[in-house]
């Protein structure tokens, strides 16, 4: 039995609010459907952050539900959990009755070809630890989560758990949230992080993937990574290379990118590549020349670096707010978790993602229930 695994689709019209970079999430979602159908998959597992927001315009919801219907029309079951981005008491996916919500409060444990699956929506640290000790988790072969794990990200993003917390009966953990593709063993536990389906930050790995699982009735499961076609990024450095070679490299890379886009059959929007320019902040002439060479043929992003010593660059503030160090990564240095647990908990909830008003209402409700 074949199952396609994906996560972090972040279905939305735009990635960067103030840049006309559109269509990437829908392009990837269309490929996922086509791949699942072409490979004869019996199910698709979606590990959270399927939508980019809790409050949505109509287009992302339409694209999501049309895709789910398309899969169901081809007799492909859909299982999902929610990430913090689209987290709702009543999930958006529940509009399409064919999609099964993997949640202790919903489907509980489901069986696929003899393999027992359990999952939970995004939770804070206490909530995740509670789920990992639940009857559902203790009886599952495969867990589907959407969390920040210390083993993948260290202490960045205030991790809610470690892989050592996962019950020994679990053979495979499928997790969303981490935007890089990972498939490896941690002790006896196999972990798959599909990663995001398209660039959500200029600094992410360009190449994106989904995973195809083979779940036999007997014997070990097998996994294979399958690539998605994505908008290209061209990396140019005026720190390492002189201006003239850098411009020539840019022109060559633009030609290659457009050849790739034509072969991929991309729409006009997705066909326009990204250029990531590393430069000295004082090199105004170089930046102007590269910008002129890019013209309207690509979207350009800047990464200014200042060399203190040879081979020791200092990264300066990046111009796009979406790609700067997120505030949640600095929380531990600003608030003591033990001394101010309520403030820390509220700050973590607000910075983790989601609509602030809804997050605040949920947090107040939780505190009220705890105090009653």
Explain this structure to me?
The protein has 372 residues and is α/β, with parallel strands linked by helices. Helix content is 31%, strand content 23%. It has eleven helices and 16 strands. Strand 7, helix 5 and strand 8 form a beta-alpha-beta unit.
| Fraction in beta strands | 15-25%
Strand order across the biggest sheet? 4-3-2-1-11-12
Spans where pLDDT lies below 50 across 5 or more residues: 316-325
Number of helices: 11
| Oligomeric form | single chain
Helical content (DSSP H or I, runs of 4+): 25-40%
Largest sheet: 6 strands, mixed
Anisotropy-based shape: globular
The number of strands is: 16
Rg on CA atoms, Å: 22 Å
Rounded mean pLDDT is: 86
Calculate the terminal CA-CA distance, rounded to whole Å. Answer: 48 Å
Class by alpha and beta content: alpha/beta
SSE string, helices as H and strands as E: EHEHEEEEHHEHEEEEEEHHEHEEHHH
Fold topology:
Layout: E1 2-6, H1 24-38, E2 43-47, H2 58-73, E3 77-81, E4 99-101, E5 110-112, E6 115-119, H3 125-132, H4 135-138, E7 142-146, H5 150-153, E8 172-176, E9 182-186, E10 189-193, E11 208-214, E12 222-228, E13 233-237, H6 243-264, H7 268-271, E14 274-279, H8 284-294, E15 299-309, E16 312-315, H9 331-334, H10 341-351, H11 356-371
Parallel strand pairs: 1-2, 2-3, 3-4, 6-7, 7-8, 8-10, 13-14, 14-15
Antiparallel strand pairs: 1-11, 5-6, 9-10, 11-12, 15-16
């Amino acid at each position: 039995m074949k199952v396609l695994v994906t996560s972090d689709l972040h279905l939305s019209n735009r990635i960067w609010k103030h840049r006309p970079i559109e269509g990437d999430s829908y392009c990837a979602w269309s490929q996922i459907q086509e791949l699942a159908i072409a490979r004869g998959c019996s199910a698709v597992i979606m590990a959270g952050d399927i939508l980019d927001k809790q409050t949505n315009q109509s287009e992302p919801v339409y694209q999501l539900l049309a895709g789910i219907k398309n899969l169901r029309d081809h007799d492909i079951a859909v299982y999902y959990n929610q990430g913090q981005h689209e987290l709702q008491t009543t999930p958006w996916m529940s509009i399409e009755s064919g999609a099964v919500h993997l949640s202790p409060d919903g489907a509980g444990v489901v069986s696929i070809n003899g393999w027992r699956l359990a999952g939970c929506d995004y939770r804070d640290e206490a909530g995740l630890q509670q789920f990992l000790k639940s009857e559902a988790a203790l009886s599952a072969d495969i867990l589907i989560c959407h969390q920040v794990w210390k083993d993948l990200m260290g202490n960045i993003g205030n991790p809610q758990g470690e892989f050592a917390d996962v019950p020994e009966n679990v053979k495979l953990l499928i997790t969303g949230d981490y935007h890089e593709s990972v498939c490896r063993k941690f002790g006896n536990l196999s972990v798959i992080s599909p990663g995001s389906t398209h660039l959500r930050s200029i600094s992410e790995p360009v190449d994106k993937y989904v995973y195809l699982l083979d779940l036999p009735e007997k014997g070990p499961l097998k996994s294979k990574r399958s690539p998605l076609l994505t908008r290209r990024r061209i990396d140019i450095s005026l720190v390492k290379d002189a201006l003239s070679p850098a411009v020539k490299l840019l022109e060559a890379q633009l030609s290659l990118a457009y050849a790739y886009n034509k072969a991929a059959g991309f729409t006009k929007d997705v066909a326009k590549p990204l250029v990531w320019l590393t430069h000295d902040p004082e090199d105004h002439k170089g930046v102007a020349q590269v910008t002129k060479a890019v013209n309207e043929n690509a979207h350009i992003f800047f990464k200014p670096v200042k060399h203190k010593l040879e081979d020791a660059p200092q990264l300066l503030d990046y111009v796009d707010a979406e790609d700067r160090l997120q505030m949640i990564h600095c929380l531990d240095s600003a608030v003591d978790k033990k001394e101010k647990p309520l403030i820390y908990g509220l700050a973590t909830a607000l910075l983790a993602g989601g609509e602030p008003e809804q997050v605040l209402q949920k947090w107040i409700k939780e505190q009220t229930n705890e105090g009653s």
